[in-house]
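Lecture notes, unit on protein representations.

Consider one protein chain, 260 amino acids long.
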Amino acid sequence: MGENVHLERDPSTGVAVIRLERPKVNAISTDMVRDLAAIAAEIAGDTTVRAVVITGGRRVFAAGADISEFPSFDVASAQAFSETFNESLLAIEQLPQITISAVNGYALGGGLEVALTTDFRMIAEDGRIGLPEIQLGLIPGGGGTQRLTRLAGVTFAKEMVYTGRHVGAEEALVNGIVSSVHDPDTLLDDAIAKAAEYAKGPAALQMAKRAILDGLHLPLAEAVRVEAEQFGRCFGTADNTIGVQSFLEHGPGKAEFTGR
């Protein structure tokens, strides 16, 4: 897909792995942003992929944007870069599949912003996250001020953004930024195994994700209408028929779903 972002699919599990591979620290360049958008577009239409893991490797997830590009920016080009980056990250966030970030090492700045787009963030015990842009006289430009606030709350997000400090795995877990903490040597395998569990789930997982994302920022009366629409869509799936029939014949938890 690109020199610095690679996509691997495992048809046997339905799990795809997106690997950020731009030595030395996976600094996110303009080309990487475009590659991420292209991969998201490819995965979104692939019905054989039912869950996605994003990883940067054993030593680092992604240590922020490629600062070497910044001296050429002016006000207009900086805003254009931010808008392009956000379009790519929104494409990842809007993927119909369940998504997991496996965060080993550092996930800073744009790297953390990539991780924030996924449904879950699994972090290594020695992992570190942060939005250090303020130390460059900048603010996050890939949705960090918005997604972090929605996950961790206004006060903690302000403290992270205003200081730019790094946060360890346990503090990130306590504040709801990550979903679980793992041995760094097994993190990626753990994330792939968790993704494989979701990949066995019904097509209704897509409807659940859509209802949560679309309803999150709406008034409750509008949000429950979104839920009702997605609830109705479930009845157009083969998995609904499989699940209901299995429940009636064998009780709960016995259905084997197809993802359709």
